[in-house]
Amino acid sequence: MLSNKIDRSGFTFIEALLATAIVGILAAIAVPAYNGYIDRTKNSLAISQIMAIQTEIERYYTREFRYPDALADLGAALPGVGIDPWGNAYVYLNIINGGPGVKGDVRKDHALNPINTNYDLYSKGKNGVTKKQISQKDSLDDIIVARDGSFVGLAADF
């Protein structure tokens, strides 16, 4: 005698939908966490490159008895070829040896006090945009040198 039973060993539509929903929820949690990790890694790389550039600037000062006019004066010693992890050029401004009008380009804190006296050195950060006052929204993601080198880090942390 033949059996009329149908083999039903597979996923039902509800089971497949539930599995898809679980994968979607896990992806929604994992992607922002991964992006945060990438941002922290790029910030750390920019901080280390800025510290290396700062060291090269001080070496230049020791040799030449003045600060360089531009980062290109450092030559091959420039870490990352002068490009930050986001693909933007590091920004350098010689304050102490600068000519007229340089004081107007100096970056300032929330109270409009200059953050450096010798030179400014910074990365425009993830958004690639910056303002002279580091407490403004566009500058919070910048990686900066402040207090003449005693602080190197995220502008939001200064």
From TrEMBL:
GO terms for biological process: protein secretion by the type II secretion system. Keywords: Methylation. It comes from the Bacteria. One of its GO terms (cellular component) is type II protein secretion system complex. Pfam families: N_methyl. InterPro entries: Bac_GSPG_pilin, N_methyl_site, Pilin-like. NCBIfam families: IV_pilin_GFxxxE. This is Uncharacterized protein. It comes from Methylomonas koyamae.
